[in-house]
Amino acid sequence: MNVALSGCAIMTDGPEQTYSRQAEQPQTLPSAVLSQHELHLSPATMERLLHRSITYHLGAGDVISVSVYLHPDLSIPSPMTASTGLAGAIVTNDGNIQLPLLGLVHVAGMTTAQLKAHLTQLYAQYVIDPKVTVQLQVAHSIRYYLLGEFTKPGLVYSDRPLDLLEAMALGGSMNLADADLRGAYVVQDGRKLPVNFQKLILAGDLQQNIPLKTGDAIVIPSVSTMRAYVFGAVDKPGPVPFVNGRLSLLQALSDAGMNTASLTNARLSDIRIIRSEGATGQFYVVNARRILEGKATPFYLKSGDIIFVPQTTISSWNQAIQLLLPSLQAINQLLNPFVSIKFLSQ
Fold first, then answer.
1. Are 329 and 344 contacting, i.e. CB atoms less than 8 angstroms apart?
2. Strand (E) or helix (H) holding 5
């Protein structure tokens, strides 16, 4: 027997051994992705949303000086009191300042240029061709809201307008290990801006370092709040949570109420997935049936992914989007900015 085993060992040193080793190696399964393409928000849209000039508007707590040329008695602070450290007129919580001769003047929401024009008009009732100068001495109304994975989250103030990185620095350091940068966003004027925080924080892309307006909110959500959204031919459409930062397509379908074991009449072979970040959206067509049958590798989702399971055959992405629109409108506030801007802002 020993001889036979020895002989067998000698024989397998030839081509048969090579073939045997190749056969033992696990075969790599193909991808389940049938097609993929990208769309981008236009440069004009990005410029309009992110890089517009931010003009400062006066608000409660600001201190301004008003000078009327050749009329020191109408100036705030007056030349006699300026040396005592009195900076000027303070904007009240009601948005007013007190000025000589004019009394209360509402200034909240104005720029200094607008206030100058307004005061010139008012003083023209008492002074011939008044030369009015308005300057912002102290800015106390600039505030930003830092929410989520900051070591010092909350309301922060600044004495000047800031850009995104400067404002984030006021929140201390960021808990990157627990932060969902893909889901992070800035809220300005009630809408999310398409800022790519992964490029900004991890790659240092300063194109994402946008100027902020007072009242803007910077939100860095936790990985514990990561969600994907499943719609279409499922029993429980809506958000599906990630578990320890991971979620596969089949897990999401199961959590959404699709009995994948019975192969329902949904089009598992034509599932549509929208993935977005910043100004870019990626569009996938995935054959989940092949994953289910063990003929393709699993497809892992990312935070904010939108999954659409068609009930019947669909001919194009345009048709898929039209079918998705009612569901997307219902969760518009939860979506990544790209989807809202691209499909829901009309």
1. yes
2. helix 2-11
Predicted confidence at residue 12, as pLDDT, reads 42
Q: Which of 30, 152, 132, 138 is nearest to 74 (CA)?
A: 132
Let me know how many helices (H) and strands (E) the chain has, helices first. Answer: 11, 16
Q: DSSP 3-state assignment of 264?
A: coil
Helix, coil or strand: residue 199: helix
- Pairing verdict, β 191-193 and 185-188: antiparallel
Note whether 222 and 182 are within 8 A (CB): no
Q: How far apart, in Å, are the Cα atoms of 283 and each of 35, 183, 251, 261?
A: 8, 18, 20, 26
Domains of the chain (ranges plus CATH)? 33-50+226-343 (3.10.560.10), 63-138 (3.30.1950.10), 142-223 (3.10.560.10)
State both tokens at 199: 């490029």
- Residue 276: name the closest of 248, 252, 307, 303 by CA: 303
pLDDT tens track for 130-151: 999 999 988 888 999 999 999 9
Nearest to residue 197, comparing CAs of 277, 306, 303, 276? Answer: 277
Q: Quote the tokens at residue 27.
A: 């075969």
Q: Token pair of 328, please?
A: 């997307």
* DSSP three-state, residue 299: coil
State how far Cα 93 lies from the chain centre: 31
Predicted confidence (pLDDT) at residue 6 exceeds the cutoff of 50: no
Residue 63: the pLDDT is 92
Say if residue 188 is exposed, middle or buried (CB neighbours under 10 Å; 0-12, 13-18, 19+).
buried
Torsion sign (Cα): 246, 251, 253, 254: negative
Among 29, 38, 98, which residue's Cα sits nearest to residue 64?
98
